[in-house]
Amino acid sequence: MATSAQIGNSIVSQASALSLTGERVDFEEQRLRRTRQAIAAIVVVLVAFVAARIWCLEGLLFPVHISGASMGETLSGIHYRVKCEDCGVIFRCDALDVPQSNEAICPHCGYAANQLKERDLHAGDQVLIDHWVYLLGRPRRGELVAFTHPDDDSQRVVKRIVGLPGEQIAIRRGDIYVNGQPWQKSLNELRGQAILVSDERHPTTKSRGLPAHWQPASKKSHWLEREQAFIYSGKRPPDGKNFDWLSFRNWQLGYTPETRTLPSTVLDHDSYNQDLERGAPLNDVSDLLLTCRASVAKYGCLVFAATDGADRFEVHMCHDEQKLKLFQNGTQTNVTLLPHRRNDEPIDIQFALCDQRVLFGMDGREVLRQPYTRTDKNAKQTEPQLEIGGAGARIRISKVKVWRDIYYLEPLNTARAWHAEEVVPPHHYLVLGDNPTVSIDSRQWPHAEVPLANILGRVVRPFWIR
Fold it and tell me: What pLDDT score does 254 carry?
């Protein structure tokens, strides 16, 4: 039998065990309580952050729409969205200033009898104004911003920033110059504001006998057009000089079929401003972007060429060498490794001359960026402005589009050079509209620059509308 001492020890041991168990339970409850409090605090912070972010995005709860034409076509006010009755290209034009004929010219094929119908009328583009972004930083060149008018606090305006504090801004040959040097856009920036010139996915159906935009340069060419694609089937060896060329031809736009067969360089034609009477001749545009989808067989060599005045630039993409070579007037100026691709694998190509730089992209990624100097600054633009060359093996080109950059003008819409009267003051910004022929901006305002205090936020398109 257990002694009284043993019984007492047993009772003490049980009491100690119960005490330890109770402390362990209390500790677990405290740790669980702290975890819940931490999670609740994080949730509160996240909810507060999201609420503040939503509050700083004007236009998310109550829609904000563009009302004028000064930013078209990047951001359009009330406009017609027209489907060309000849080629089927969809284009926009200002609805507040339309021709008396109530007809619009297609910027792609030049068909002039497109009726402006009420069913094609659309409200201005919906945008968001991000008030948050400039609480933490400063506006950057190229950004779209909303601000109160520097001479009228009751007006809210949307423009693009081109001049930062301390900079001298000028316009020459349609380009923006910053402190004497051209503002050089990236490939992404160019794509964001490029204007369509030609889309080979849309052949004409009403008009007969119109010349094609892309034509073989030689009668003995191996380029063939099939199902809105261009096929090269020759086996000429890619020796770096002898290529089979496919040339881009631009045609004048006008109200008669005859003008649609007259060759022309790419001009700063205003398809958005259908009723605008330009008091000066249209200007040659050398800043062009070519986009397409290409597939190249083994041993094939694909070449993209463009001209800027007296200078010719060629980008050679040869699979067997796995190199991308750039030539200016026959002299190699750059070579880079070609991103690996399997033979015949489709590649989305972007090739551009813009702001005195050669740009080349593959599948949305910029792989070549090379500045250049014009050999003759006064040389006129020549034709063809764009060419595609093939050699070695089978090549297929589809979804071919040609775009042009915005051609900026001085206040009277001529090609004369212009410069701001003074350097942009501290905490101020110089702004321009993307539709320079109708935009009223820092070129005309008495107080040309916009104070930082007037800038409300950055303007973006809602992702569900893009």
Answer: 63
pTM as predicted: 0.87
- Residue pair 356/311 in contact (Cβ under 8 Å)? The answer is no
Model confidence pLDDT, tens digit, residues 7-61: 444 444 554 554 545 566 576 778 888 888 888 888 888 887 776 666 678 888 8
SS3 337: strand
Kindly report the number of other CB atoms within 10 A of residue 348's CB atom: 14
Which residue in 282, 287, 303, 231 sits closest to 413, CA to CA? 282
- Say how far apart CA 108 and CA 271 lie, in whole Å: 10
- Angle CA 386–178–335, to nearest 5: 45
| Whole-number Å distance between alpha carbons of 336 and 320 | 14
State pLDDT tens for residues 79-125. Answer: 999 999 999 999 999 999 999 999 999 988 889 899 999 999 999 99
Q: Tokens at residue 206, please?
A: 């009403």
Size (the chain), residues: 466
What's 284's DSSP letter? Answer: B
Instruction: Output the pLDDT for position 342.
Output: 77
In sequence order, which residues have a C-beta less than 8 Å from that of residue 372 and are 6 or more positions away?
Answer: 308, 311, 313, 328, 333, 356, 357, 358
Determine the CATH number of domain 193-404: 2.60.120.560
Q: Which helix (H) or strand (E) element contains residue 223?
A: strand 223-226
Q: Which residues of 319-336 are buried (b: 16+ CB within 10 A; e: fewer)?
A: beeeebbbbbeeeeebee
**Least confident among 233-247, 271-285, 331-345:** 233-247
Rg (CA), the chain: 31
> pLDDT by residue (tens digit) across 156-169?
999 999 999 999 99
- Helix/strand/coil for 137: coil
Of 16-30, 270-284, 392-406, which gets the smallest average pLDDT? 16-30
With CA atoms as reference, report the closest residue to 75 among 420, 446, 406.
Answer: 406
Q: What tokens does 226 get?
A: 């099939």
| CA distance linking residue 183 with residue 187, whole number of Å | 13
Q: Which residues in 92-118 are b (16+ Cβ under 10 Å) and which e?
A: bbbbeeeeeeebbbbbbbbbbebebee
What does the pLDDT read at residue 5? Answer: 47
Token pair listed for 205: 């159906």
Q: What letter represents residue 164's amino acid?
A: L
Show the CA angle centred on residue 196, arms to residues 365 and 436, nearest 5°. 105
Instruction: Report DSSP state, residue 459.
Output: E
DSSP 267: B
